[in-house]
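Q: Joint fold for the lines below.
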Amino acid sequence: MSAPDLFDTHAHLHFPDFADDLDAVLERARKAGVRRMVSVGTNVETSRQAIGLAVREPDVWATAGVHPHDAAEADEEDLTEIERLASVESVVAIGEIGLDFFRDLSPRDAQARVFRRLLGVARGAGKPVVVHCRDAHDEVLAILAEERVQDVGGIMHCFSGDVDAARRCLDLGLHLSLAGPVTYKNARALPEVARFTPADRLVVETDCPYLPPEGHRGRRNEPALIAITAACVAALRGEPLERFAARATENAVRLLGL
Ligand SMILES: [Zn+2]
Ligand SMILES: [Zn+2]
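A: Joint structure:
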């Protein structure tokens, strides 16, 4: 059987964690069947770095955004710069943006202000969003609805909610992305979410260097390991890996306009 056609829709390849051996990391990803990767920005500086990488590597694309952790630091100049970066050709989405009430590294009103502003930027650019949400599903969903996310679509990255939260995201037209935690013994509602989500709305990601799948925990994650998460989700859905991977890739390619 041929290698699965995998798409890592959320990686941070431009982070210093990969500075010493990025070429080897990309080589291992390609060997594992990962034909496309998105390197996700978290502030102005890392968005620029992601774009630099996307310009260099033919199978890497970028996003531009301000992570909720970085929201307090983002001034008007930064948000204007993200707006400018949003129109760069290799930028396929605006993100990651959202709310994180788990770690609360920025004040909640600053998180909400930046989130709303960059949802507006996404609408202006006509590009989808990559949404980060931790312990804030009600608030994130309310803002996404008010800011008409349906106009551009997007991905709830590293989805961590239950089936009810999944249903509400799907009702807003969003795609759900499953990451390493679906493979954990304590995966909570995620196996159920993997089975519940319609085939045309599901994608997968590593969120590397974070969240390595089972068997690799405590170490640096990398795009090649998306194969483990994809195999786990395919098994949960009772589908052959090749078919699941092909469809997840097709979903991401369509949403991101590659
Ligand atoms: Zn995130
Ligand atoms: Zn991330």
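Q: Anything notable?
A: The domain at 6-256 is CATH 3.20.20.140 (TIM Barrel). Residues 96, 132, 157-158 surround zinc ion (ligand 1) (CB under 6 Å).
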